[in-house]
Amino acid sequence: MKTFPEKLRFWTGILVVLSMSALDFSPALAALVPSRTTGMTAVTSARDADMLVAQRALENKIVAQKLRDYGVSPEEAQVRLANMSDEDLHTLASASRGLPSGGDGTGAIIGILVVVILVIVVLRLMNREVIVK
To answer: What is the pTM of this model?
Structure first.
């Protein structure tokens, strides 16, 4: 039982031979790629690491609101942070390590909602009923 006509088999064979001969068959080489630092996360000293932790703590909405309540603007807080001694900056960074960096948990809530919506969509695509009581 022939599935393809002889002419189609011939031209398919020619096409396969030409495409395989056009490919470059070279041995695969693998190696570790050196890491590179980006401009945003280049930490070269302990002071830079402490400064990064303290700046992320200042991005927290609760901390920013408290500073505004005390009459300190965000720009003024950044200037004071830059002028701190290494010891004071390390103390501030150590105290602020427990704070969430940047947000107030809104991203986590949005992520959970997206996952729930995706589960509901998948169940609907599988013709399952979604009942919320």
So the answer is: 0.43
